[in-house]
């Protein structure tokens, strides 16, 4: 007897790691309905675009993608089939009905706190009646409704512990698209982490818009990490993204005391000018940020720092930008993300005077990237000659190659057997590029030529 073919689900994820987690959980929600994931939207029964609203170009890419998918939907309809199109994530939250008005091929819109309602929304869409837009902020309801079991296939996994933001940086839409800060209960997180470890996950990355603002059950992120560090099989813990004002003493201490907490910290600063930081409503100064880094490094001297930077914020003059370069030189970053300021409708910064010319933004971004790239290459080169514990995740692009991650989140390539995937193995680093390292297995030299 032949098996009943699964309904085909295609999900495209834009933006941050939290969207990656949300896409995985949407898959879990839809799996009981018979949906199996496919890699191509052509011919899919359900297409979900899980969107990001941080930058304007990302939003326009969504509408461009919807135009292409509409053509696929029309082709399927001509062949007697049906395709349902859903827009999820932060663009869905921010633009809601406007998405349906602008692209009438869209069947339903679901915000990031309401994707647990997808089965009900799909049923409504198929009946062509009832509400097809869900964009509330009830994060607790979402997590209560999600299946306890997660379908994981790798040795690393994301784990959302906190959502939303109360900081209201003047350039950012997150408080309007994800709502206020909300933390999951400690026990729920610990149980999900236990299940992940039982499924073979060796490393989790804790996610939150301001993850170090975590306060579930009156806990702190440091206390949560200490609980997770006791789970058998869970060997590595990371977290992102943090805010400098929420970097408490107990979390700094945890970096110095817990071997499971990886020596890599993403701590966005955004700018080096106090004038610009104040205009951004960041609630920290360049000096307080540098002193915070000094405290973190005192607790964990080998920690690698990562950051976010915005150039061309309204009112930024040459002298302000030079202060950003000075801060970068003083701190030294192992990696970083940098962007030109992009106006987001409804944010205070979008209406500020002193909007910076695009050509000036581009020139400043190029200069900043050159400095950051140099620092990343220097940091990677400093690993040559060292032996690093590498968690191998998958086969590489070349025959006989496997790829893993160092404690500092660098990709590490070696020649070796696929039987090492899922294990943590010492690797002697022999060479470094901007984005990766290469080496040989320290304890199994026979595998180097296998």
TrEMBL record:
Xref: InterPro entries: Elp3/MiaA/NifB-like_rSAM, Methylthiotransferase, Methylthiotransferase_CS, Methylthiotransferase_N, Methylthiotransferase_N_sf, MiaB_methiolase, rSAM, rSAM_horseshoe
UniProt keyword Membrane present: no
Domain MTTase N-terminal: 7-127
Cofactor names: [4Fe-4S] cluster
Subcellular location: Cytoplasm
SMART domains membership: Elp3 (SM00729)
Function: Catalyzes the methylthiolation of N6-(dimethylallyl)adenosine (i(6)A), leading to the formation of 2-methylthio-N6-(dimethylallyl)adenosine (ms(2)i(6)A) at position 37 in tRNAs that read codons beginning with uridine.
Assembly notes: Monomer.
Descriptive protein name: tRNA-2-methylthio-N(6)-dimethylallyladenosine synthase
Species name: Caulobacter radicis
């Amino acid at each position: 007897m032949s098996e009943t073919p699964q309904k085909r689900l295609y999900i495209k994820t834009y933006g941050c790691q939290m969207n990656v987690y949300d896409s995985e959980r949407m898959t879990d929600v839809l799996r009981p309905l018979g949906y199996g994931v496919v890699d191509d939207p052509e011919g899919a029964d359900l297409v979900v675009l899980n969107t990001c609203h941080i930058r304007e170009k990302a939003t326009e890419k969504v509408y461009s993608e919807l135009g292409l998918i509409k053509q696929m939907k029309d082709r399927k309809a001509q062949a007697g089939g049906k395709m349902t199109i859903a827009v999820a994530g932060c663009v869905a939250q921010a633009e809601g009905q406007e998405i349906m008005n602008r692209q009438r091929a869209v069947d339903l819109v679901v915000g990031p706190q309401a994707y647990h309602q997808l089965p009900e929304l799909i049923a409504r869409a198929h009946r062509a009646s009832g509400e097809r837009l869900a964009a509330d902020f009830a994060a607790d309801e979402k997590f209560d409704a999600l299946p306890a079991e997660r379908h994981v296939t790798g040795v690393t996994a994301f784990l959302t512990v906190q959502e939303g933001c109360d900081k209201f940086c003047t350039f950012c839409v997150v408080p309007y698209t994800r709502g206020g800060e909300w933390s999951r209960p400690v026990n729920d997180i610990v149980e999900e982490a236990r299940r992940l470890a039982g499924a073979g996950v060796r490393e989790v990355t804790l996610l939150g818009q301001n993850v170090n603002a975590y306060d579930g059950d009156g806990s702190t992120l440091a206390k949560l990490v200490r609980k997770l560090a006791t789970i058998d099989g869970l060997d590595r813990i990371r977290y992102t993204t943090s805010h400098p004002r929420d970097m408490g003493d107990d979390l700094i201490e945890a970096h110095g005391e817990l071997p499971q907490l990886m020596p890599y910290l993403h701590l966005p600063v955004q700018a080096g000018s106090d004038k610009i930081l104040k205009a951004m409503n960041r609630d920290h100064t360049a000096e307080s940020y540098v002193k915070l880094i000094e405290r973190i490094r005192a607790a964990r001297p080998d920690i690698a720092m990562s950051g976010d930077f915005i150039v061309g914020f309204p009112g930024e003059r040459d002298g302000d930008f030079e202060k950003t370069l000075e801060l970068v030189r003083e701190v030294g970053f192992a990696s970083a993300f940098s962007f030109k300021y992009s106006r987001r409708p409804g944010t205070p910064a979008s209406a500020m005077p002193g909007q910076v010319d695009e050509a000036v933004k581009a020139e400043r971004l190029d200069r900043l990237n050159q400095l950051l790239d140099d620092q990343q290459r220097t940091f990677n080169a400093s690993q040559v000659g060292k032996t690093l514990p590498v968690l191998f995740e998958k086969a590489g692009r070349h025959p006989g190659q496997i790829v893993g991650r160092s404690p500092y989140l660098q990709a590490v390539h070696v020649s070796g057997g696929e039987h090492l995937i899922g294990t943590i193995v010492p690797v002697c680093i022999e060479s470094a590029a901007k984005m990766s390292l290469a080496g040989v297995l320290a304890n199994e030299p026979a595998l180097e030529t296998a």
